[in-house]
Amino acid sequence: MSAPELDMLKEELLDAVARAPDLAALEDVRIAALGKKGRVADLMLLLSDMPPDERRAFGQAANTIKDAVSLAIDAKRAELARALTAEKLAHERADVTLPVREGPLADGRIHPVSQVTDELTEIFADMGFSIAEGPDIETDFNNFTALNIPPEHPARQDHDTFYFAQRPDGERPVLRTHTSPVQIRTMLAEKPPLRIIAPGRVYRCDSDQTHTPMFHQVEGLVIDEETHLGHLKWVLEEFAKAFFEVKQVKMRFRASYFPFTEPSMEVDIGYAKVGDEIRIGEGDEWLEILGCGMVHPNVLKNVGLDPERYQGFAFGLGIDRLAMLKYGMPDLRAFFAGDLRWLKHYGFPPLAIPTLAAGLSL
Ligand code: DAH
């Protein structure tokens, strides 16, 4: 093969590279030119029949073609890839400034109980509490005995408990009457220091305008070696201010009795009624919102903690009642009637997730 022929071959291959319309065609060109059975390989086959003096020059020429074509292919490949990306971007362009498209998602409403639970969680999480959970069906031990309510204790009668049938092993499960058994579960499973809240459903055989057989509580528990009643007061006051979104709250701590705390208190929150509206932090009406106290030494003993070393506080708060108070919903039974008109009126938009930074109820 003469020098002009070699030049022609080179031009032909470079031309094919230049005209390749897309990456697949370019790959075909590459295989035809540089592949094992391609045009350049054909040249190398000719070498073996040549006299040594020609062989060197021919070999060099063949290699020059190979390098030139290979460079051209790389450049062309980069060019085609860039064009492909540009075309894709032009088609897939998204206007991120457009508002969220209204659809079924925007039509739905978050139930006030879910909303208030999210609000509570946000506030206590900010104070360093984590979330604990327990099952709705509890053992008698967790719901009563470990909480210093032994069999025959009069407090058992107060709870209007839903009992299950006794099992062969003697255990008689209950629908938990409060979230306090989550205290027991947490203390059995984890070592102090503990700082948890436990929101959830509770059950009592009771039904009238302000009572439903199922309702919601949130339990709080702090256990360590130095927490005292002053901490409890501070946590509850900070919580009330954040929850009701006011600068000042009036709170009244009344001595009370719970088997699982000593001393025990009930807490009232001060409000004023202006027309139909309830204003928290003003006026001189009082509404009870929670029970609390310092964890009873017997409870600590029941979960294997030394009351000489560990102490802490607990509180239990009615979520439904807080929701009624904050959002002015007068009838508790409507919460669970499943009436869509009620939910549309009192429910919350699903994308307005409560955060302390953006506002809890905006
Ligand atoms: N478990 C109580 C109830 O349902 C509420 C309660 C009171 C919880 C005092 C507590 C507490 O943790 O310390 O009536």
Beta content: 15-25%
Give the radius of gyration. Answer: 38 Å
Count of DSSP-assigned helices: 13
Name the helix and strand elements from N-terminus to C-terminus, one letter apiece. Answer: HHHHHHEEHHEHEEHEEEEHEHH
- Measure the end-to-end span: 84 Å
Mean pLDDT: 92
Q: What does the largest sheet look like? A: 8 strands, mixed
Query: How many strands in all?
Result: 10
**Percent helix:** 40-55%
Q: Helices and strands: which structural class?
A: alpha+beta
| Bound ligands | 3,4-dihydroxyphenylalanine
Estimate the global geometry from the Cα principal axes: elongated
Low-confidence stretches: none
Describe this structure in words.
With 362 residues, the chain is of the alpha+beta class. The protein has 13 helices and ten strands. Strands 1, 4, 5, 6, 7, 8, 9 and 10 form an eight-stranded mixed β-sheet that branches. A two-stranded antiparallel ribbon has the order 2-3. Helix 3 runs antiparallel to helix 4 (52-91). The radius of gyration is 38 Å and the shape is elongated. The structure holds 3,4-dihydroxyphenylalanine. 3,4-dihydroxyphenylalanine binds at residues 178, 180, 219, 258, 261, 291-293, 314-316.
Q: Summed up, what is this model?
A:
This protein has 362 residues and is α+β, with helices and mostly antiparallel strands.
